[in-house]
């Protein structure tokens, strides 16, 4: 399952997704990078539907992500994540915030790169830690040294984010309304929107 897309898109579905007005925007990046916060705002500005992959999983499973991790482990969670990404990435004219580790599976990388525009929301380790230091809902950060764990995850994932990205955007520490204006400007400049 790692190397293939679960259910291939029909040529008609693929053609609909690649139309500029319909092409989904997929936000990737580390937890705490702003995928959900900026994604909601971006969708509002673009008059698109917004989806959060983790939230879609929670609704489908009826339990929090942490509970899925507890019961099925990370491998079980990642399998469910791939199935949900297959569903969500088929929706035209959307903004989708993926989970930070959604890019790890090759099947997910294929879906993201083939079905939409991938925007990597980049933030440095210190900024990510500042945003996440009080968040107790992140299973991967329940360690003695969460900042070190963020650094390890970023080192592992950043090459994948960069390789997948059609657009790389630094989220920085400015207020959300300022960041979203900058993001919209970059997306227009790069003819994504």
TrEMBL record:
Question: What subcellular compartments does it reside in?
Answer: Cytoplasm
User: PANTHER family annotated for this entry?
Assistant: SHIKIMATE KINASE, SHIKIMATE KINASE 1, CHLOROPLASTIC
- GO CC terms of this entry: cytosol
Where do the annotations place ATP binding?
A: 32-37, 138
Q: Which positions does UniProt annotate for substrate binding?
A: 54, 78, 100, 157
What does the UniProt function comment say about this protein?
Catalyzes the specific phosphorylation of the 3-hydroxyl group of shikimic acid using ATP as a cosubstrate.
User: So what EC number does this one have?
Assistant: 2.7.1.71
Q: Where does Mg(2+) bind?
A: 36
Tell me the gene name.
aroK
User: Subunit notes for this chain?
Assistant: Monomer.
Q: Which cofactor does it need?
A: Mg(2+)
Please give the catalytic activity noted in the UniProt record. shikimate + ATP = 3-phosphoshikimate + ADP + H(+)
Work out whether the entry's keyword set contains Cytoplasm. Answer: yes
Domain of life of the source: Bacteria
- Protein name according to UniProt: Shikimate kinase
